[in-house]
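Notes to self after the call with IL:
- keep both proteins in one doc
- input above output, always
- annotate only the second one for now

Protein 1:
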Amino acid sequence: MANAGIQLLGFVLSFLGFIGLIASTIMAEWKLSSYAGDNIITAQAMYEGLWKSCVSQSTGQIQCKVYDSLLQLTGMVQGTRGLMVGAILLAGIAILVAMVGMKCTTCLAEDQEQKGKVALTGGIVIIIAGLCALVGTSWYGNRIAKEFYDPFTPTNSRYEFGKALFVGWGSACLTIIGGAFLCCNCSSKGSGKSSRYPPNHSAAPPGRDYV
C-alpha cells in the first residue's frame, strides 16, 4: 500500500505540473515592464509572452497583439516556445503511459513486471519533460536578468520577471518530483524481487548412510 501511495502521489504531482505548464505557456506575462531606477511616471504597463505582447492602460483597458511573424522573433522566444511545447507534449504522453502502469489500474494486471516497466518509462519521460520546461523558463529568465543589469539598456526598455515564469518554474519542479516518485516506486519494487528467490545452495547435501 505504501508503494501504491507513493505512485499515486507522483502521478498527482505530475498531472498538476502538466496543467501548470499549459497555463504558463499560454500566459502573456512572461516579462513585465520595470519601473526601477529613474522616477518613471507612466499611464501604461507593458508585458510580453511567448505568443503576444500586451499593453495595460491605467483605465483598466488591455490591448494585446499577437506576434505577426515567427521568423521576426528572437531566438530566445523561438527556443523557449519549442521547449515548452515539447515539454507539454512529452508530459501528456508520459502521463497516459504512467496511468497504464499504475497499480490502481487494471491494464496489464496479469503481468506485474511489465506493468512496473511501463510506469518506470512514464516516470522517466515525465522527468525529461520537466527538465525541458525548467531549461526553457530559466533561459528566458536569464535573458531578462542580463538585459535588466546591462548598463546600455535604456531604463524604459527594462523588464522584470512575470507571473508566467514563476508558474513555469513551479510546474517544472512539480513535474520532476512527480516523475521521480514514479521511478523510485518502481525501483523499490524491483529491489525486493531478489528476496523472493532465496539461494538454495546453503544447505549441504544429505549424507548417504548405508547399513
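Protein 2 (the one to annotate):
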Amino acid sequence: MVDNRYATALVISCVLSVLATVYLSVAVGTQHWYQYTSPPVRGEANVSELRSLHDEFMEGEFDEKTYSDTLFRLNGTIGLWWRCVLVPSHTHWYKESDPKMVMKCVSFTLTQQFTPKYKEPGNHNSGEDMLRTYLWRCQFLLPIISLGLVVLAGLIGFCACLCHSLTPTLGIGMLHLLAGLCTLATVCCYLAGMDLLHRVSVLPDKVDGSLGWSLYLALISSPLHMMAAALLVWAARSHSQNYYRMTAYRVA
C-alpha cells in the first residue's frame, strides 16, 4: 500500500517530467536558439550581394563562414539542427517599402554536425579549433542523451507500475537528475560556442544578436527534470525508511 504523500509526489514528478520532455523536444526541433537582427538593405549592389549569399546558403557547399555571414546579414536564426534566414518573397522586394518576408531553413546533416571548426572560420589552413569543435558536438549529442535517459526512466517506471513496486524509484530519480544536468550542459555548450564564434568572426555594423525562445525552453526543462528527480528520490528514501521501520516493529 502506497502512502498518499508518496503517491502525490510520484504524480507531480510525472507531470514535471512530461513537461520537461515536451519543452526539450520542442527546443531541439526548432531553430530559435540564437537570432540576429539585421538592418534593412537598400541599393541594387547590396541586393545582388545578399542574393548571392542566400543562394550559397541554400544550395552551396557547407562552410561555417558562408552560412555565418548569411545569418548575420539576413536576420538569421540558428538552432541545434536548423539554420534559417528571413528573405523577401518577391524578386523586386528592394523597391517596396514593406516587403513580405518568409523564412527559409536548411538542416544540419549528421556529417555536418561532426565537421571540425577552424580557428578562422572558412580557412582550413588555420588549424582546427578543438574547443569549438567539441562544444558543437556536445551541444547536439547531450540533448539526445537527455531524452534517451528520460525514455529509459519512463520504461522502468512503467514496468515498476505493472509490478506494483516502488523499488526502482530511486534509480528513476537519478536518471532524471542526469537528464537535467545534460540539458543544462547543452545550453552552456551552446552559449559558449556562440560566444567563441563571435570572437573569431566580424559582425557587420548594426547587426544585433539575441537569445531565442527555443534556448529558454531548453533552459526551463533542466530544472523541471531536477525537481522531478528530487521528488522521486524523496519518495524512494522516505518509503524505504518507513518500510524498514515497519519491518523492525513487526519483528519486535
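Annotation: The chain is about 65% helix and 10% strand. Confidence is low (pLDDT under 50) at residues 243-252.
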